[in-house]
Fold this sequence. Notes:
By secondary structure, the protein is of the alpha+beta class. It has a single domain (23-199), classed as Rossmann fold, CATH 3.40.50. Helix content is 25%, strand content 41%.
Amino acid sequence: MTMEKRLWAPIFLAAALALAGCSTPNYLVSQWSNPAYTSPPFHKVLVGAVGGESAIRRNLEDEFVAQLKARGIDAEPSYRYIPEDQNVDESIVKKTAKQAGADAVILARSVGVEQKTEYRPGYYPYTSFGFFGPHVGASYGLYGWPSVRRYDVYTSETTLYDVGKNDVIWTGTVRTYDPENVSATIKTYVETVLKALQERNLLRGKS
């Protein structure tokens, strides 16, 4: 795995990946929202992504903007205001949001990477037939050599800020497995985050 992929994979959510013989989608591990927060709908959201290769940062921010606008919420990517050679962090994005006339910020960043090892035996249960009828799981047959698969589990965090109040509205942690398709991974990541925000009625556009 390239260093570029390691830097950005935590920000993405992979589409679907076979794990222990079944398809495991990306999922929201945990989320928190400010119970005391009240605010009218946002006028504009600035989207920022921390770290990584500039082209992937642009794609991630653009996908957020596209999906936000599809929900009736105006949004802009931070790369229009922050140079590609400048590090993006929370304070810079918040300052940039004020300059861009945005009253909210969505900031995505990686949390960590954990390597996993999966062992798959060469023997699997099958149905045998005898004098007394079928016996499911009573016999085992060799279907191939035992295998070992190593993969990375990525954890990323996305936070929604109210710029005017300088307050955290919501933060969510998402976990995924080795992203194979960058475009599909980005799209799924954004869908997961925005769905969680809308379910809590925290992301509304001007009516």
